[in-house]
TrEMBL record:
Belongs to the LysR transcriptional regulatory family. Residues 4-61 form the HTH lysR-type domain. It comes from Allorhizobium taibaishanense. It holds the Pfam family LysR_substrate. This is LysR family glycine cleavage system transcriptional activator.
Amino acid sequence: MKLPPLTALRAFEAAARLESFARAADELGTTAAAVSQHVRALEDWLGQPLFERRPRGVTLNGDGRTFGAEVSSGLGLIATAAARLKAASKHETVTLACLPSVVTHWLGPRLPGFRQLYPEVQVTISYAAAQAVRAQDIQADLLLCHGVKPHPGARKILSGETQAAASPAFLALKGPFQHPADLLQADLLHDETVDGWRRWFETAGLRGTVKPGPIFADFTLLRSSLLAGLGVGLCPIALIEEDLAEGRLQLLFDHGSDLDRAYWLVERQLLSPAATLMRDWLIREAEGL
């Protein structure tokens, strides 16, 4: 089996995924010049270019994009297999910093599956509040955070889209709500600040003062109040799929906001074998594999 040099493949995979020699160098702990040399060596080995080089940076060409996806998949399989063998040889721990709402409504129900696959791995989950989002700064092995993309290396796990939702009991008592403007005078529940509702009304083409209402420090608290019929709240669709399926909550309109936000997976540099297993498992779960 004739293969390209592994160092060249690693450098190319990082550069292709991040579309930047400089960011790939930061991830690999080397220099942009070294990454460029490795990529050039791989292109020479293949006999064709993989990047279009411009004064302001590099861009994958068509062949490079296809080859990059295949190399990333192949290296990922190697990393997962190696991590499984290494973790099985001793009891290992992985720490994951995560928002409580994500643990409650998405991660928690899936964790038994991880434990069944990797019983030798001890998982420690901590609060994500006040965690840094740069790979070199996070205290946990892995971080699940919410917001706009924190940096190019972050991986999207769940959509952050929010839509207006309420319980059937509340809608029967206070509804119907035919148009988004009807909610300007409704009992609104707020998650952390009133900014979420302000953005939602603005994307619906509505301006004005957002009606005051209870502000909850966490979505799990907000959800409990929605289920109790206390008002209308903006809910991350990814976290209420079961509530919608079982009829505990209903969406009011086919209009969402926060489309630029998501739940992101950030990993620290030099992951342990156990952390590599959990990272890859989280990605598979998010993709529904």
